[in-house]
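Supplementary Data S3. Sequence and structure tokens for construct A.
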Amino acid sequence: MKIENYTIDKNSPVFIIAELSANHNGSIATAIETVRAAKRAGANCIKLQTFTADTITLDSKNEDFKITQGTLWDGQYLHDLYKTTHLPWEWHKEIMEVAKQEGLICFSSPFDPTSVEFLETLNVPAYKIASFEITDIPLIELIASKGKPVIISTGIAQEEDIELALEACKRMGNTDIALLKCTSSYPAPIDEANMCMVKDLAERYGVISGLSDHTMGSTVPVVATVMGAKIIEKHFILDHAVGGADASFSMDEEEFTAMVKAVREAESAIGIVDYTLTEKQRKSRDFSRSLYVVEDIKAGELLTEKNVRSVRPGFGMHPKHYKAILNKKVNTNLEKGTALQMSFIKNND
């Protein structure tokens, strides 16, 4: 998968996305400064969400449209929530231009056909399908038909949902797909993260896999990295004091910077399969175990468990020879602290 100049594959560094979501809090100035802060924090990408209240839901006070599931937004009607949190479409172009100036990739999650066509006029380099849209097969087909990379969150998905979404993309001739493990709780409990799914998604479906994270802190992104995630998305806020619908489970610049550092260190720690030793490791072998004389021994006396032991450092014979040299005679006087060598042992004795 290639998004603009960033190649995402099994050997690439993790592609780190800062999700703006509702954290503009109704201010384009805040949105623009958030983009700049995301760059400072080490993000590779800033992601937007493209919808209006009318394109994502209905203006209805029917109880179906009232949030009552123990969420941060309980008691609100969907239309009211989305009316206050949506990113005005007339801001998109300027935000994307600022992202480009900052060297950040910028794309969006569209939530209906009109938002897809609008984003096409802005020539976005990729599309993200939000967790709750994974069941909207016609929308996925439209997005996939644009021939750009498609990143799909799986927060509410069962296996059938994932399979149907993948089939929809492939019907449109698009196999440039990534799947993100996501827990659609806000914030999400760490014990529901199930990061083993990151590896399974990649192996089971033959795609790039990653994480769309709503847990607190950096632990889950680091574990995801170890499990093979190549994309990590976190909600990003300029300042928690700004407040807003997503503020409580978003990372500010300091927190996001720490997460990026932790992810990059995790990548470095994973390394490669290699049994050869570095120069420093070879030198450290000096402190490994070897056979030493621990009591003075006169020429002609036997080596015994009392006068020879395996101790640090490692300048004597390898401990693997210990049993073989017991009850052998030495051919010279040996002082306590002498590194035992094969040349000190009489032949044919």
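Construct B, processed identically:
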Amino acid sequence: MSRTLLIGGFAVVALAAAAGVATARPPIEPAPQAAPNAPVSRTDFVERRVQPLAAADADGDGTVTREERLARAMVVRQERAGARFERLDTDNDGKLSREEFVAMAERGAARPRPEHARRNHGPRGERGPVRIADVRARADQAFTRLDTDSDGFLSVEERRAGRERGRERMQQRLAAREASPQAPASE
């Protein structure tokens, strides 16, 4: 019995130490946001893409696993729900009154979800681990491709042209997918 108690005690200490290590990491600051019409530097462009992954990398090994992505998504959902509640609780009493709830419903009915929010992006949880270094390299390559005047900054026009090229490529891929016959599942 004392051996079981001792092993259980070690397990509790190990879990507490692991939790302390996981929470001892300094919080990751959000990537700086430039004004919408301001040029975007290479560093800002890359960091905006890497920062969410760095925030999800709980063990700091440079790779984000499925479990880390799911845990980070839960934290983000909770933060957004808390912020949404704070916005809705206009009298700051910690509760939503009927009037606050009705006002929320009226604002929500007047603001339909954007089209991109309705898309089904497929089984995102099925992807394997993501290496932050790979994402950083791809973002750096994308910046080079978008920076058509090679001045080290993306102007509003360069970003707009890049989005348009991306839309065109997506439409071409969708058209090719629809044009190709789907093989039966038994083959």
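Strands lie at 40-41, 63-64, 130-131, 153-154. Residues 66-111+124-128 form one domain.
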